[in-house]
Task: inverse folding
């Protein structure tokens, strides 16, 4: 894959580039500021890019805004956002266009290199990948409590893992269930939430998150 | 008919009040009148005026403060206008390790001396004393004279109507008419006069402000020091300790690499988990110092993020995207966070409504937080709401809390803000 890395801290950028190249992917460009990031994204049109939220010149949410602007011009451009902290607010903004190809992770997720590269590949394929911390926040907040109140505990955890972007098979492995048992849970869960089932895992995630996104 | 009755009632009440105002404001002139009478009575000696004069001076001095107190309380009772007294407060007298007593001005051998010395000094140095004296002189010739009209009219009527002569009786009748017509209004002069001459002078207001700011500075310094200690402790017990453990694990791994690769791998996994945990701790710590989303997005979005994370169903409305000075943003943010926490923890609320707006004349920001909990919130020393009040006081901000038992709780924070 051709990848753009946008990160202002040298050590992290360098580490990330080495990690990505160790897995046989190619880093075509790096960026260290918000405007540079937007420029790199639009010039190189990478298969996927890794973008830090906070970058110079203002040290505010430059990276996030560059990513949103790039996706505004090229809908569905696959971008994985990295940050020191996760906010539901940002997750909702990233998911708002419903185009997929979005990831949102805490920076320490790169500790688990396999999972990180896996998430990158999922995003590049147009899927969605969310940090478990984001999902936990989404599922525990007041606005979703009411809607999710009817789910059983097991359905709740299946929904959480599904929202992270996992397939039924992966969820089954994590919860020590058979794949058919998981699909039984998802069917009953979708029934309770009023979402029509669909085999495509990406669309399931989008449906779940779009549902949580409702004001 | 009813109109007439209400007018009669107000005339009756007004007459009573006019009498009270006259009596209060004429106390000091009465002392002087008595002194003059005494002097005339003793008349023969050319030095006989000295004693009555001294007594009158002492009497004026002693009466000025009670007169002012009475006028202030009358105005507050009748019109609801509260005029701050602004008297200098005595500091507590403390015994030092040397055995001497310190009263804020000087050292005294005994507590009694210290208290007496303090009382005298405050009496002489307080600008309010001179203001009171001035008022004692001004009051009789302004409100005293005006308020005396109804009682004087009645007195004149009573005296004149007992006389046989018709013209004298006519004058008495005129006096009665003036008394009755003026009764509802004559006492009202007391309010403007008191507000004009009894309020704290610019100098006194300044002195009060200095006291207030000194107290606030002390509060802020204490709070800041406590905060820094907390951060230090958190770093020391948390991230620092974990980094030490991490270094230790890595050193062990280096040793074990060749002899026992399996255990080395397990240690590396532990080390990674430790690093992740310390990152989580650092993140929580940072959030407590200054939430990153506040830096990245400003107050309104930060409060939105807070509302999203809250277990409450919280609605945020903001009419504009305000960008305020960072310290104010931070104070308001933590204020809202505190109120949301209270709503969950103490009020057991399910819903909350937060609104952020500019105030009407555009010189400040008004933040309302409302929940549907069980209410009964109050400001206690050392409690969260007291801390909130202290944090906002630094910016001259105020907190109004309406929280009847049974709910709902409504809190309004108002912060003047020139940068809008």
Result:
């Amino acid at each position: 894959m051709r990848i753009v890395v946008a990160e202002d801290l040298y050590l992290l950028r360098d580490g990330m580039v080495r990690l990505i190249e160790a897995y046989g992917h190619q880093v075509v460009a790096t960026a260290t500021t918000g405007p540079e990031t937007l420029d790199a994204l639009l010039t190189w049109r990478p298969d996927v890019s890794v973008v830090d939220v906070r970058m110079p010149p203002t040290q505010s949410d430059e990276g996030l805004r560059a990513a949103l602007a790039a996706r505004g011009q090229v809908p569905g451009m696959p971008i994985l956002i990295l940050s020191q902290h996760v906010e539901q607010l940002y997750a909702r903004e990233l998911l708002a266009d419903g185009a997929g190809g979005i990831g949102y992770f805490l920076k320490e997720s790169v500790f688990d290199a396999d999972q990180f590269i896996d998430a990158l590949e999922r995003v590049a394929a147009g899927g969605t990948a969310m940090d478990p911390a984001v999902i936990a926040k989404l599922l525990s907040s007041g606005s979703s409590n009411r809607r999710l109140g009817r789910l059983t505990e097991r359905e709740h955890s299946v929904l959480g893992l599904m929202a992270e972007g996992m397939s039924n098979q992966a969820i089954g492995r994590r919860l020590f269930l058979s794949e058919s048992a998981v699909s039984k849970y998802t069917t009953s869960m979708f029934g309770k939430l009023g979402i029509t089932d669909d085999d495509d895992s990406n669309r399931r995630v989008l449906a779940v998150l779009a549902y949580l996104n409702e004001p | 008919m009813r109109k007439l009755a209400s007018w009669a009632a107000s005339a009756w009440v007004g007459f009573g009040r006019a009498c009270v105002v006259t009596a209060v404001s004429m106390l000091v002139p009465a002392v002087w009148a008595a002194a003059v009478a005494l002097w005339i009575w003793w008349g023969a000696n050319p030095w006989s005026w000295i004693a009555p004069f001294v007594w009158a001076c002492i009497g004026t001095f002693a009466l000025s403060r009670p007169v002012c107190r009475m006028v202030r309380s009358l105005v507050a009772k009748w019109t609801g206008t509260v005029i701050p007294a602004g008297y200098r407060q005595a500091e507590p007298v403390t015994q030092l390790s040397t055995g001497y007593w310190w009263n804020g001005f000087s050292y005294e051998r005994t507590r009694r001396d210290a208290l007496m010395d303090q009382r005298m000094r405050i009496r002489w140095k307080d600008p309010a004393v001179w203001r009171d004296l001035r008022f004692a002189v001004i009051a009789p010739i302004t409100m005293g004279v005006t308020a005396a009209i109804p009682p004087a009219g009645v007195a004149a009527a009573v005296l004149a109507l007992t006389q046989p002569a018709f013209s004298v009786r006519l004058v008495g009748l005129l006096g009665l008419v003036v008394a009755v017509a003026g009764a509802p209004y004559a006492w009202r002069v007391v309010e403007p006069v008191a507000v004009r001459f009894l309020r704290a002078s610019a100098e006194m207001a300044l002195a009060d402000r200095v006291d207030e700011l000194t107290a606030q500075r002390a509060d802020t310094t204490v709070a800041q020091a406590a905060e820094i200690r907390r951060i230090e402790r958190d770093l020391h017990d948390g991230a620092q300790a974990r980094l030490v453990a991490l270094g230790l694990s890595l050193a062990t791994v280096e040793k074990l690499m060749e002899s026992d690769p399996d255990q080395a791998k397990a240690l590396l996994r532990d080390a990674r988990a430790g690093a992740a945990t310390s990152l989580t701790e650092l993140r929580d710590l940072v959030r407590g110092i200054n939430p990153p989303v506040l830096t990245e997005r400003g107050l309104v979005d930060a409060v939105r993020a807070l509302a999203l994370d809250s277990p409450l169903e919280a609605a945020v409305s903001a009419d504009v995207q305000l960008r305020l000075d960072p310290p104010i943003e931070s104070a308001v943010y933590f204020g809202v966070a505190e109120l949301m926490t209270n709503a969950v923890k103490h009020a057991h609320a399910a819903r909350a409504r937060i609104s952020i707006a500019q105030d009407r004349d555009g010189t400040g920001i008004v933040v309302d937080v409302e929940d549907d909990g069980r209410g009964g919130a109050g400001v206690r020393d050392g409690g969260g709401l007291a801390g909130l009040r202290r944090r906002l006081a630094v910016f001259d901000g105020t907190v109004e809390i309406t929280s009847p038992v049974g709910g709902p709780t409504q809190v309004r924070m108002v912060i003047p803000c020139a940068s809008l």
